[in-house]
Design goal:
Helix 11 (about 565-580) packs antiparallel against helix 12. It contains 15 helices and 40 strands. The radius of gyration is 29 Å and the shape is globular. It is α+β, with helices and mostly antiparallel strands.
């Protein structure tokens, strides 16, 4: 097996190092770039723990079941406690964990977060092997493993369910591999934070995970990945825009995919797209699962789009928000400039536009959207040419300035296009701003770079009743921006109302998510997850309607599948979390999330998975060394731009902060290049000659 070779190498490297160095090192022992951790012995350090990961993903229709095995490798001769912070898809429902030590496998249990932490700490103190999985944000998790033996390893296996994205005729799977450092506006620096995700909650301890500069050092934490697809439909194309892959056809609508390389560094998101052959029929996928007295249903329906495609688009006011902070340096800023340039090309004479840039400060090309004239477009392109990435990600002033007018002019669409990697820690504050100030504006997000904050990008677009796309490389700019402008130019299908009825047409009591179906754009489906009484499910029907369009789908026709209840529970947790920025009481939301997490066995902000051994492994006299697994710098990032300089908000520019409330300053554009000194000398000469001529003329009049 390929991964066994990779893991063997990971184990051999530390072993070779131990042959010529003590278990604990002094700074004089370091002979190469290495991350060290302090120990209980003054002046003595331990190498960081390592993690090797293998990922198995099985796709069935619109649902994916993923198994992630993390092998913690201890490169020291001391007992070790390691922590690995890792990303997962923002809609992942983590519902199972096992801890494997040698030939023993220990099943984890779900518990309230504080209780799980106490159980883990007690096992660690008593020398028993233990593992703890916690969620810090909807797409950031950590795995802590206690009492890893000297030179040994412990395997932790996580399982999660997720629904897949379908857009413009293709399914998309995104497996994130690296957590990008987030900018914390309150502290004016970049770090991984365990910030209080819910408002009005006590401040939690920061996560200060080391980041490895992969521009000067080899990346760590290898990942091996394989995927099996059972689409249920014939497939036309399967592609990855992020990694080289090998594809094997295993049947009609079935594919087996593996990385072309034996393993890849965990420094960028893995993406996979596949296109089913639909023909002329509408796309409908339906699944159900009965657990106890409840039936859970998952529906994906593609409404007709022909009328939307031929409807003439009204004139638009489009405001582009352009992230030029330090995390965008390198490939990201080039992709963002190319994307915005492409967007300018798609503007029509009847449209108006503006560009708002932000890093540590915020500025705007115009105070208000201006006409799409050649002169204004030229000013915009000059602005793009001189835009570089630097500074902090102070996003809020730019967003507030773009949303300061809630009502569009009569007969015009008002749209905001947000180009960013989303690398911030204050997502909830931004979601609250969107909810409070959006009005009739629609918000579209463009995720830039190799490791964008998918949670922020997608939830911001959903809260803003818009859509989102991801651009990870320059080669994808044109097709992705073309697709986005198709959505911008076509009116959304609104007012889709779901209703669940019994055989007589009477309404059924259900919990369906999302509670309100968002605006839909060309090529996007309706996806609903619902819980209803099992006794009524056999005769239940889902009815949808918007204008003249209607659809009726019986629950009994849905295909039986495992895990639909878990998918529903994750959707409920997401809806509860979203209710916070709509003003829901935090204590009530916390209680509801905890109850859902415990009932369905999933990891949430308030529930965790914990596994412990029953017998002691570490000798009582042996100390434990603590260390975080270092994370790779995301591919394409510039380390110096992100960490090499002191990030600060420039307090000497109050006008930039007033931009949040409507006082953005115009951007000073450069003048054309001229031979300044020659022109200055000529001008002075002409002035002198004119002065002499004037004096002579006056003297002649006197005479």
């Amino acid at each position: 097996m390929k991964f066994a070779t990779i893991l063997a190498i990971a184990l051999l490297v530390p072993a070779a190092a131990r042959a010529d160095q003590p278990a604990l090192m002094t700074l004089d022992d370091v002979g190469r770039g290495e991350l060290l951790f302090r120990t209980t012995e003054p002046g003595r350090y331990a190498p960081a723990p390592l993690v090797a990961t293998e990922v198995d993903i099985k796709v069935g229709g619109i649902v994916a079941r993923t198994v992630v095995r993390q092998h913690f490798v201890n490169p020291t001769e001391s007992w070790l406690e390691g922590r690995y912070v890792f990303p997962l898809p923002e809609n992942a429902a983590v519902d199972r964990m096992t801890l494997t030590v040698g030939d023993r496998t220990i099943e984890a249990r779900i518990a309230e977060r504080a209780e799980a932490r106490r159980t883990y700490e007690k096992a660690k103190k008593e020398g028993r092997r233990a593992a703890l999985v916690e969620q810090h944000r909807p797409n950031i998790f950590s795995n802590e493993v206690a009492n890893v033996p000297p030179g040994g390893r412990i395997a932790v296996e996580l399982r999660y369910m997720q629904t897949l994205r379908y857009d413009r005729g293709k399914f998309s799977l995104r497996f994130p591999m690296v957590v990008a450092p987030r900018f914390d506006p309150a502290a004016n620096l970049r770090r991984l934070v365990r910030h209080p995700f819910e408002p009005q909650q006590p401040k939690a301890q920061d996560i200060a995970v080391p980041v490895r500069d992969t521009t000067t050092q080899a990346p760590l934490n290898p990942v091996a990945l394989k995927i099996e697809i059972d689409a249920g439909l014939p497939l036309e194309k399967v592609v990855s825009t992020s990694h080289g892959i090998d594809i094997e056809k295993t049947g009609e609508g079935r594919r087996r995919i593996a990385l072309s390389a034996e393993a890849v560094p965990a420094d960028r998101d893995f993406t996979l797209d596949w296109t089913p052959h639909l023909g002329d029929r509408p796309m409908v996928a339906a699944f159900r699962e009965t657990v106890g007295d409840d039936t859970y249903a998952l529906f994906m329906i593609m409404p007709p789009a022909e009328k939307a495609a031929t409807t003439p688009a009204p004139p638009r006011d489009t405001i582009f928000i352009f992230d030029r902070s330090g995390s965008m340096a390198g490939t990201s800023i080039r992709a963002a400039r190319a994307a915005l340039s492409r967007a300018l090309d798609r503007l029509r004479p009847q449209d108006r536009f503006n560009i708002i840039r932000f890093s540590s400060e915020t500025d705007a090309l115009f105070r208000d959207p201006q006409a799409t004239s050649p002169a204004n477009l030229a000013r915009a392109r000059q602005l793009l040419e001189r835009t570089d990435a630097d500074g902090g990600t102070v996003m809020r002033p730019a967003l507030l300035h773009a949303l300061r007018r809630a009502t569009a002019d009569s007969g015009r669409l008002r749209q905001v296009v947000f180009l960013t990697d989303g690398g911030v820690s204050n997502e909830m504050q931004l979601f609250h701003d969107i909810h409070e100030r959006l009005g009739e504006t629609r918000l579209f997000t463009v995720g830039i770079g190799s490791a964008p904050n998918g949670y922020f990008m997608r939830r911001a677009a959903e809260a803003g009743r818009g859509a989102n796309i991801f651009i990870s490389d320059l080669g994808r700019v044109e097709p992705e921006m073309t697709a986005l402008f198709e959505k911008l130019s076509r009116p959304a299908m609104t007012g889709i109302a779901p209703a669940w009825t019994d055989a007589e047409g009477a309404a059924l009591l259900t919990e369906s998510f999302p509670r309100k179906v968002p605006d839909l754009y060309f090529g996007e489906p309706v996806v609903l997850a619902a819980r209803l009484p099992a006794a009524a499910a056999a005769d239940a029907t889902l009815r949808l309607g918007a204008g003249a369009w209607t659809a009726a789908l019986p629950v009994a026709a849905a295909r039986p599948a495992d895990g639909i209840g878990t998918v529903w529970a994750r959707a409920k947790v997401a809806a509860l979390t979203d209710s916070l920025y709509e003003g829901a009481p935090p204590d009530a939301v916390k209680a509801a999330i905890t109850e859902t997490g415990l009932a369905h066995g999933i990891v949430t902000r308030h529930t965790s998975l914990v596994a412990t051994e029953t017998t002691r492994a570490r000798p009582a006299e042996a100390d434990v060394v603590h260390g975080d697994v270092p994370l790779n710098l995301p591919h394409g990032w510039d380390y110096e731009k992100v960490f090499g300089e002191k990030l600060r908000r420039k307090t000497a520019a109050p006008a930039a902060q007033k931009a949040a409330f409507g006082a953005a300053q115009p951007v000073p554009l450069p003048r054309g290049a001229t031979p300044f000194l020659i022109h200055l000398a000529a001008g002075v000469g002409f002035l002198a000659a004119g002065g002499v001529t004037l004096l002579l003329a006056r003297r002649r009049r006197r005479i």
